[in-house]
Write a structure and sequence with these properties.
The protein is mainly beta. Helix content is 0%, strand content 40%. The protein has no helices and six strands. Strands 1-2-5-4-3-6 form a six-stranded antiparallel beta barrel. β4 and β5 form a beta hairpin. The mean pLDDT is 90.
Length: 105
């Protein structure tokens, strides 16, 4: 079975808000996570907030958009942003996209 990914590209950046166009018309639903690869190799996760029409969505970035350029590829992750829960996470510190920031591994 061939896995297909829903890919688009950034067409506008205004502060933490990004407009992303999906040329094939397959738009991710609201609250879906979209990954954008950045020059620093860390990548950026954005969350879809609005369907604009014309195969475009408006999303909010979860980290700085400094250095991000129009035309960069965006990949729909197919699910909302999730964070870990449960006993192993008690007392830990996580950022907004669920990555540990307390240097405990």
């Amino acid at each position: 079975m061939v896995e297909t990914t829903n890919k688009g590209y950034v067409c506008q950046i205004i502060g933490p808000v990004l407009d992303i166009e999906f040329p094939d018309g397959n738009l991710p639903p609201i609250y879906s996570a979209v990954r954008i690869e950045t020059a620093d190799g860390i990548g950026n996760i954005v969350e879809v907030q609005q369907l604009l029409g014309d195969n475009k969505v408006r999303a909010v970035s979860m980290r700085s958009t400094d250095g991000l350029k129009r035309g960069v590829e965006a990949v729909d992750l197919g699910s909302p942003i999730t964070v870990p829960v449960g006993t192993p996470t008690l007392g830990r510190i996580f950022n907004v996209i669920g990555e540990p920031v307390d240097e405990q591994g």
